[in-house]
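Sample 3 of the quickstart, ligand nicotinamide-adenine-dinucleotide:
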Amino acid sequence: MPHRITLIPGDGVGPEITEATVRVIEATGIPIEWDVKEAGIGAAEKFGTVLPEDLLDSVRSNRVAIKGPITTPRGGGFRSVNVALRKALDLYACLRPAKYHPGVRTRYDNVDLVIVRENHEDLYAGLEFEKGDPAIAKVSELCEAAGMGPIRSDAGLSLKIISEYGSRRIVRFAFDYARRYGRKKVTAVAKDNIMKYTDGLFFAVAREVARKYDDIIYEEALVDNMTMQLVQKPERYDVLVLPNLYGDVLSDLCAGLVGGLGVAPGANLGDDIAVFEPVHGSAPKYAGLNKVNPMAMMFSGVMMLRHLSEKGAADRLNAAIAAVIAEGKRVTYDMKPSLDDPTAVGTSEVADAVIEKLRRMD
Ligand code: NAD
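Result:
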């Protein structure tokens, strides 16, 4: 029986890295039936919505999807399709491994950590009021009544929401992940010295959950200090669990530690649905140029194969990508010594190189 998987190419560079990824996954020999679905601006033009119900139904029934990035307009315009997808399917955990591969251009050769980011709450909960919204004046009145002073009338307002429920399930997810993959330590990261009632709650719940996992070391760190620690001694860290915004920022930082966004994979997971995607966005300036690195999405494909219990295929694909990186010849511009290196190859040539390595393993 083939695996039936929802394939969301996305926009910008999404379609080209998706094509490259599909080719290498198929080259592992695992039978897959792709259920291709559109989201974002293209879907809005065709179906009148950026996130068609038909796409959500497909992911609900297949329970596994892999997607390319989808553009979100900055400032105004529609809200993030990526955030809406995670909410609609209750994909509350965002998993972003950052692992060093020999041959990657980085200052660090000893990074092997995993970011577990809460996906629904925090400043990403979508509770926002535009400057001038009468709701801001009401909140301001409440703040004044509580002795916290008014909110300026020219301010916008975003609410930071951290619940016990949301914190408990993400911290449990992090500990369960650590146990399942033989990891030794979970570090919870927030800033409770300033945000006592939100980040303070996150740490309190994390401590309570940690007591049930006495086989795993538990530590806490303040997010500002953590950014410095990660730059100085990333080898100290194993699994990091964070509220949404800090998780987003630190996962790009960790991508930078291991060679950049071109090689950083990710997954959004719920209790029984998984959507795999690279950490990077749609890089619109490179769209259609056959230029960007497809490896972040290919490594997301490796994670997907593991999730499907196709361990052999996952290990082979991982080894094939790693071999192309180690050789350093048929890689995209971001993996060369300089960005204008004339020996850099394009997106689809990277897929050719990975497929060649896979065939040599057969
Ligand atoms: P981005 O990740 O798209 O690109 C930033 C820069 O990183 C690029 O200009 C490029 O230099 C480099 N880069 C990114 N991916 C690369 C790759 N595969 N190979 C080589 N270099 C790569 O970030 P952005 O410019 O901030 O965002 C562009 C759009 O993507 C925005 O609309 C944003 O909202 C969206 N976005 C979507 C997702 C998602 O779909 N999950 C994630 C992040 C951003």
